[in-house]
Amino acid sequence: MSKPTPDVYEQGKGMDAHNQAMREIRSRKEASYDPHEPTRVWLDEDNTPGGVKQSLTIILNTGGCRWARAGGCTMCGYVAESVDGGSVSHEALMDQIDICLEHEQEHGDEPADLIKIYTSGSFLDEREVGAESRRAIAETFGDRERIVLESLPDFVSREKIGDFTQYGIDTDIAIGLETATDRVRHDCVNKYFDFADFEDACEEAAVADAEAGDDVEAGIKAYLLMKPPFLTESEAVADMISSIERCADVEGCHTVSMNPCNVQRYTMVDELYFNDGYRPPWLWSVAHVLEETADVDAIVVSDPVGHGSDRGPHNCTECDDLVQKAIKDFDLRQDPSVFEQVSCECELTWETVMERERSFNQPLTR
Ligand code: SF4
Ligand SMILES: [Zn+2]
């Protein structure tokens, strides 16, 4: 008879196992990128506490997320777009910013009021973006109205936020919290921090806000993941509603962005999906959560990526565009009555899934 070894107890439990699996999956991707070019840049519109603004969105190409290199989150394929293993120099980062400014001049009528900078990691992590680059970028965009910077909560401090607010620019830190429930964040998403760390970051932002004076704001935008792997549709919906409510109750957190999970390549979600173990959320679920949380004390938005496709949030394909449009309307107007005007036969299927799907029989439908 075989005997269990200590290895058996080490493996197959919690984060070690998830990280090991994720490292293996990610290592299948081989690609490298030019550190002098941003990963992506585009112009669009976004809802902020100051109203709907023209926005320049930048995905900076930095060394990539440290956590992703350790293994990383079960749904995230972003590391695949980062510079291999290394960090990016100040000069290269500033070249990336120049390209973004050129893009804005070419495609926009005037400088955008809102700047959003993501890094596929943490903009405030000094191993990704050093203090020199951070301050130079703050100066570059200091004359705009508002800036959003992506960061994990550990790297948020009042001083770093102050680098931006000193120019009079409203500053939001976008934190990929994913869920307010620690158990779900750890075991389904494989993200290492706790809700308490998020609360600490919100407190830093609240202090930065107070220090910045009356005319300048600093705050937190929480990003939540609708339907991480291993949750049924109804569990995901219940977890999302309570997460939005808990985030809205934290001082310093003024916006919640609910991102329906999509199936990205080289992720654990992709493996599950490929083996019939995962279905992205229904758009009806997204609409339902927005309706249920319409009265919380925060802006709640959602921007379903890849809607209507099998790998993205979807309904029956007939009604996907319609429901997506209602969600986008809700984002801008925060009025839940937009959902009264959309209906489809597939709502009955969704209701059945909500009622009958269990962990052992999911996904109940495709
Ligand atoms: S979701 Fe964020 S923290 Fe997780 S691996 Fe991706 S970039 Fe890193
Ligand atoms: Zn439908």
Salient structural properties:
366 residues; alpha/beta; TIM Barrel; eight-stranded mixed beta sheet; binds iron/sulfur cluster; binds zinc ion
Summarize the entry for a quick read.
This protein has 366 residues and is α/β, with parallel strands linked by helices.
Describe the structure.
- The structure is a single chain.
- The chain is an alpha/beta fold and 366 residues long.
- It has one domain: Aldolase class I (TIM Barrel).
- Strands 1-2-3-4-5-6-7-8 form an 8-stranded mixed sheet.
- Strand 6, helix 9 and strand 7 form a beta-alpha-beta unit.
- Helix 6 crosses helix 8 and helix 9 runs parallel beside helix 11.
- The N terminus is likely disordered.
- The site of iron/sulfur cluster has 12 residues, from helix 3.
- This is TIGR01210 family radical SAM protein.
- InterPro entries: Elp3/MiaA/NifB-like_rSAM (IPR006638), RaSEA (IPR005909), rSAM_sf (IPR058240).
- One of its GO terms (molecular function) is catalytic activity.
- Strand content bin: 15-25%
Computed over alpha carbons, the radius of gyration is: 21 Å
Which geometry do the CA atoms define? globular
What is CATH's topology name?
TIM Barrel
Q: What ligand species are in this complex? A: iron/sulfur cluster, zinc ion
**What order do the helices and strands follow?**
HHEEHHEHEHEHHEHEHHEHH
Q: How is the quaternary structure best described?
A: single chain
Low-confidence segments, ≥5 residues, pLDDT <50? 1-12
Give the N-terminus to C-terminus distance in angstroms.
42 Å
Mean pLDDT: 90
CATH class: Alpha Beta
The count of strands amounts to 8
Give the count of helical stretches.
13
Largest pleated sheet: 8 strands, mixed
Strand order of the largest sheet: 1-2-3-4-5-6-7-8
What is the CATH H-level superfamily?
Answer: Aldolase class I
Number of domains: 1
Task: Tell me roughly what share of residues is in helical segments.
Answer: 25-40%
In CATH, the architecture is: Alpha-Beta Barrel
How would you classify the helix and strand content by structural class?
Answer: alpha/beta
InterPro entries: Elp3/MiaA/NifB-like_rSAM, RaSEA, rSAM_sf
GO molecular function, one term: catalytic activity
Protein name: TIGR01210 family radical SAM protein
Organism: Natronorubrum halalkaliphilum
